[in-house]
Amino acid sequence: MNLAPDRLIAVINVMTAALGISFPLHLGAGGQSTVPGRDLFADGAVGRIRLEILAQGLESLRSDPRQYVRATLREGTNVFQDIAVRLKGSSSFRRLDDKPAFTVNCAHFSARQRFHGLSKIHLNNSAEDPSYLNEKLGSELFRAAGVPAPRASHAWVELNGRKLGLYVLKEGFAEEFLAQHFQRTDGNLYEAEAERASDVTQPLKRNSGSGNPDGSDLQRLAAAAQEPDASRRWTALGDVLDMDRFLSFMTTEVLSGHRDGYCLARNNFRLYHDPVSDKFVFLPDGMDQLFGRPDFPVQPHMAGLVAKAIMEIPAGRRAYRERLTNLLTNSFTIEALTNRVREWSAAMAPNLTRAEARMFQREATDLCERIRQRVLDVSRQLATPEPALVQFQNSSAGLGGWIPVDAAADAKLEKTVSSGRPALHIQAGSRAVASWRTKAWLEAGRYRFEGLARTAGVKPAASGRNHGASLVVWGRKTSGTRMLAGDSDWTKLQVEFEVSERETQVEFVCLLRGGEGNAWFDVDSLQLVRLEPKDE
């Protein structure tokens, strides 16, 4: 049987799909097969996309932005009609008449239609990433670590003739994406619920898959993560979770400071149940805010149940630490990462105006500096022996080792003496937030963080809320929070919190949030108190 190349490719795709196996092939120049979307995501690629939506569709997007409407997509002389478009985003969400972000589904209304071989793409407005590079950098870091991640590039976007500007063009979690990383694409693909924390113990939205629709596969993963016996839990998780990939997923989130992902926030992730291995693989998403805080702890409080379950197991912590060190050495080198950012920035320049190129260069330089600081701080943390658990005497323990964090250029943080007391002093700056911080290792239990503070002339900033001086336990739910503002004499502040992990590092913060004014925290009074367990 002699078939034309395009017909042969179509026959192969149909046959493999019928067997539950999918390796979508497409033809490039000369009739050679190519990876879908390869040209879209080449370094320096900047597409030009024009979207056209009729008046009825525009009104629908204004009233119900998450519902698909029909549209036409134009790219040069190529015209894609009857595609589906809707708005997307959570904190980055913008209304239609602003600079909205879009999900473009080419196959929603026309099953065979593809854009550069892809059935779905996203056009992200990068509202929270002025460098427009975090998503691309994050994608490359996860894939270098062996974790499947959508590719990203850039595009100029117009809507009905209105120039919206530069966007991040991102690959969708569709069949073509799965086929690049898995032998079969018919497993259940789950998505975290939008705008709220989600975990494997909750019903997750199933995007695709021919697996059991009742969520029984998720229930197996949740049960393994909640196994009370540590040794049995490690074995149970290994039976249902691709542990090797998850360790890389977890450590890459921490190394890159992806604080809005699964492990640290139970947000921005996908979960694929691979039918071949019968195991789950976590996939990263929403990587527009990376490398934000250089000193973020390498062994932080994990919010995601699966991450927390692993870190509570000695074998899990050892495996995590080994993977962290390995990735830092092989993937997170300052020279390699900053060179990539500079290469992307230089490749973008011909597509920008002179002013845009200068802005882009400034943001790229800032990202390079954040990368440098993060890698250096992680190296410092790993070189420091893990501290021992806090030792309490009569249920209390002092806290030391305070360091200044988040100081604006015009803020002032110093160790001084106030009213005869050794004190941590903060004078507010223009950024309105500054703090002193320290960390300590605690075992499971209930605690109170307390100390004395006083303020002088503390006034609210122009924006934001919860202004004043306070004590904070970073990333944990607390009760009893109080904030001092205006002028106040020495006042006892205290917050209660709970540690559910067997052993974990907790960060403590003496915080001032305000537009102007001063705060002092009495060093000798800052302490932890171990509380009795609550009555069941």
Would you kindly provide a written description of the structure presented here, covering whatever features stand out?
By secondary structure, the protein is an alpha+beta fold. The chain folds into four domains: 24-177, no CATH class; 183-319, no CATH class; 336-383; 396-531, Galactose-binding domain-like (Jelly Rolls), CATH 2.60.120. Helix content is 28%, strand content 32%. A hairpin with a 2-residue loop joins strand 8 (152-159) and strand 9 (162-171). The chain starts with a helix and ends in a 5-residue tail after the last strand. The relative contact order is 0.08. Residues 1-33 have low confidence and may be disordered.
Brief digest:
The protein is of the alpha+beta class and 536 residues long. The protein contains 12 helices and 22 strands.
